[in-house]
Amino acid sequence: MKAKAAQSKARNRAIPAIGRSPSAILERAGPDVTRWGQTSDLEAQEVVLLAVTGMSPAILTETIWALAHPGEGEPPIIPHRVIAVTTTEGRQKMETLFEPCPALDGQTPWGALRSALEQEGLPIEGRLRFGRTSDDVRVITRMDLATHQSVELADIRSETDNEAVADYLLDQVRSVVENPDTRLIASIAGGRKTMSALLYACMTLVGRETDAVTHVLVSDLFEGHPDFWFPGQPGGRLQTADGQPLDPATATVQLAWVPFVSLRQFLLRELGRKPGTFTRLIERCRSQLRQHAAHNLKVTLDVSRARLEINGAVCDLAPAEMLAFLFFVTRLKQNEPPFPTYKDALDQLNEFREEQRQTSVGQMDSWRLASSLSRPWDEHDLARALANLRDRLRKLGAEGAILSACLPERGRCGLDMPSGVIYLRG
């Protein structure tokens, strides 16, 4: 009775969720979508909680408790299964969920949570599937370049580690959302900030309108407390670091439904297929956005005067900027592919530079005969010309910024825009 009273008191202290509620998410998705927490007349959909976790496994119990105690007018959500994505260090911490805890009268945190929800009459039968297996606690892996073998990440420290996390999380999200009989809740409350940011990015790229992103906020006195797992937990009072008593029944847990823009259908429609790695998916998304934005431009390049006009805004280009831009415009109109790197472009760029100079012999006022074009270019010359051109374009305002984003960049040495919006004159 004491445990039930504490749990009831704790439930009354729940703070209304912030952000888009589950009902709001589904109303936006359409009238034929089943409400969160309810069963469709046609088929049951499995709710999967996918959480990034680090050194605080309580993120899982707090999130599940918050889902089970929503704001007024919202149905409770009890996930059918739980997946934790973490590092090897995080996996070790995850073990505490399944070990007897003195602060919980000897119960395990996971067992205490299930018992508390069951005593409240919430439906947990066939739900909250989670355990110690590698299918439940998934450790991020990457390729070891020295041994050419997959290794588990102990922590996330380098750029290579971050790329591995991004690809791994994209695979995990994709494995859930590709099943039409599932709904995904992605928790970004745990783990390093990089993990949370990347999981959010993955949801934006491949998540569906009916999926959700959540964060959980715990009242200050209880956040990070090693013996706090959820409001109203059994075992009585806790203590602060300085010995002050803490009653878990007074704890508050706030669930935030974090809005995200689903680009899934846009990418499938525009790309016609599902890109592989996170990096490739991001670049293809950027490319499509650049292409769409550039369709609103009318770019006129006056070749004889080295003058550029973008939707009526005019600027004069320095000879080096003119050479670089004209070179890449010419390739774009000839349907030539981008070079992989600046270095790969140098041979053809220098041939083009020499051709331009030859066409202006005797024309002393031509930009083609400027001293900056008198010698062969190297990578630094090309990079400097593009950087200066980019700065000049940004000063023209919004239209210039759009064109600036289409200029060659690392890994894509070519213009990324429709050739039909560029006109040559003179």
Overview features:
15% strand; elongated; 15 strands; 4-stranded mixed sheet; single chain; 7-stranded mixed sheet; 426 residues; alpha/beta; 13 helices
**Share of β-strand residues:** 15-25%
Number of strands: 15
Structural class: alpha/beta
Strand order of the largest sheet: 1-11-8-7-2-3-4
Radius of gyration: 29 Å
Number of domains: 2
Point out poorly predicted stretches.
1-17, 30-43
Distance between the termini: 89 Å
Could you provide a short overview of the structure?
The chain is α/β, with parallel strands linked by helices and 426 residues long. 38% of the residues lie in helices and 15% in strands.
Describe this structure in words.
- There is one protein chain.
- By secondary structure, this protein is α/β, with parallel strands linked by helices.
- It has two domains: about 1-260, no CATH class; about 300-425.
- It has 13 helices and 15 strands.
- The strands form four sheets. The chain has a seven-stranded mixed β-sheet. Strands 14-13-12-15 form a four-stranded mixed β-sheet, covered by helices on one side.
- Helix 3 (about 60-70) runs parallel beside helix 5 (about 110-120) and helix 6 packs across helix 7 (about 195-205).
- The longest helix is centred in the middle third of the chain and has 19 residues, at about 160-175.
- The chain is elongated and about 95 Å long.
